[in-house]
Amino acid sequence: MAGLSSANRSEKNTSRRLVDRFTEWSLNWVPDSMVFVLALTVIVYLMALVFTDHGPVELVDDFASGFWLLLTFAMQMCLMMISGFVVADSKFVKSGIIKLVDWPKTPKRTMLMFCLVVGVVCWFHWGIGLMLSIVMGKQIAVRKRGLGIHYPFLAAVAYSTQCIMANGVSQAAPLLMATPGNFLEKTVGGLIPLTQTALSPFLMTFMVIQLFAIPLLVMYLLPKKENAVELDEALASEFAHVPPATGDVKDLRPAERWERSPVLPTLLALVMLFWVAKFFWLNGVRKLDLNMVNFTFFAMGLLLHRTPQSFISSVKQGVNTTFGVIIQFPLYAGIFGIISNSGLAGVITHWFISISTTETYALIVVIYTSMMDFFVPSGGSKFVIEAPYILSAGQHLGVPAHHVVNAYSTGAQLANNIQPFWALAYLAAFKLKFQDILPYTFLFFVLSGIMATIAFLVFPTGL
């Protein structure tokens, strides 16, 4: 037994060293996304200079012509991120989270509930899911102390479930392709409704299978109670702290009374939600697009917060999540301008065609975009770069554009499990290091990667 224990310790130490080295490499060599978009601009410019007949000045013209192309898309993405935060930040949602957390009484049932709730919510809206997974995870850590739930494992499950199940109706690429007037509408010969992408039989089946596969892996990996490291007392006190209520202020000015009144937000929210109900009654989900999603969650945010003061306070916090989109999307649009206008898209398309067949192309897109995601972790901005050539190559190979979008959105989620960019919000919230969760998130990456490989090889052009 002593020899076995020693061998196990040696194996764990070796695994730990590998994890530490990988994490150190990521943190040392994967720069902030702003640095990467600047570097990528230079790389694409040089590629176009070498592989196309556009000269240095013409390429600058190409960059400038595309620079403002994504202003509408950037605003749409900002509203999606803010509206998701605002809904999840409401008192109603937070009180519901506490009731859900208190319902299961065992570690396995708690983790099962956690995976299913986070998975379903993330599929509907990744922004709400991100917030909910953090808030619910911290509540589980506090309220389930003594059950033996390993704290780093809990944080890893929160992160990986969000990464995997975010490939739903709020993903940027499918919503963009369904939105009238998008900059790729002419490229693919029209709109691609969500019923062919996020709501397609292929992707819906794939996501349902993943939704059930995640809890199975969680049950298998769940550390035993005797090996669990729970939340310490100091963090438990910090997470459980409730700020004191401000109470009603007497002798308010009329303007202050309106700021605290639920009348106007509730009235507007009900009118907006009535219109949403009418839209779905007349159109179903086929015409659902980015604008409709934002409209719906904007109304829900108003209704849930009730007062202008609460709503605006939450919006101010949510705006902090959008600075990358605001400042980086014009640069990505400039890159798109170079790729599209210089002819570089055709060159890269030819490269893809040369290494692909109809049967393998969708999987190649999954792998390629997963690799790119390690450096450009925003699915929306990365799609701007990749779309001109991955969609064109798919058309040449006979792979439907909607299935290329499905392959892209699936691959865009994979690398998030093993790179630290999107994990930063979780690490800050749970007070952990990336090294603490990577051993578990890597296994989720492997599971999701295997399932994606099988799905896109068996159905290379969709169902």
Automatic annotation (TrEMBL):
<dbReference type="InterPro" id="IPR006160">
    <property type="entry name" value="SCFA_transpt_AtoE"/>
</dbReference>
<dbReference type="Pfam" id="PF02667">
    <property type="entry name" value="SCFA_trans"/>
</dbReference>
<feature type="transmembrane region" description="Helical">
    <location>
        <begin position="263"/>
        <end position="282"/>
    </location>
</feature>
<feature type="transmembrane region" description="Helical">
    <location>
        <begin position="63"/>
        <end position="87"/>
    </location>
</feature>
<feature type="transmembrane region" description="Helical">
    <location>
        <begin position="153"/>
        <end position="178"/>
    </location>
</feature>
<feature type="transmembrane region" description="Helical">
    <location>
        <begin position="198"/>
        <end position="222"/>
    </location>
</feature>
<keyword id="KW-0812">Transmembrane</keyword>
<feature type="transmembrane region" description="Helical">
    <location>
        <begin position="33"/>
        <end position="51"/>
    </location>
</feature>
<feature type="transmembrane region" description="Helical">
    <location>
        <begin position="111"/>
        <end position="132"/>
    </location>
</feature>
<dbReference type="GO" id="GO:0005886">
    <property type="term" value="C:plasma membrane"/>
</dbReference>
<feature type="transmembrane region" description="Helical">
    <location>
        <begin position="437"/>
        <end position="459"/>
    </location>
</feature>
<keyword id="KW-1133">Transmembrane helix</keyword>
<protein>
    <submittedName>
        <fullName>Short-chain fatty acid transporter</fullName>
    </submittedName>
</protein>
<keyword id="KW-0472">Membrane</keyword>
<feature type="transmembrane region" description="Helical">
    <location>
        <begin position="318"/>
        <end position="339"/>
    </location>
</feature>
<feature type="transmembrane region" description="Helical">
    <location>
        <begin position="351"/>
        <end position="376"/>
    </location>
</feature>
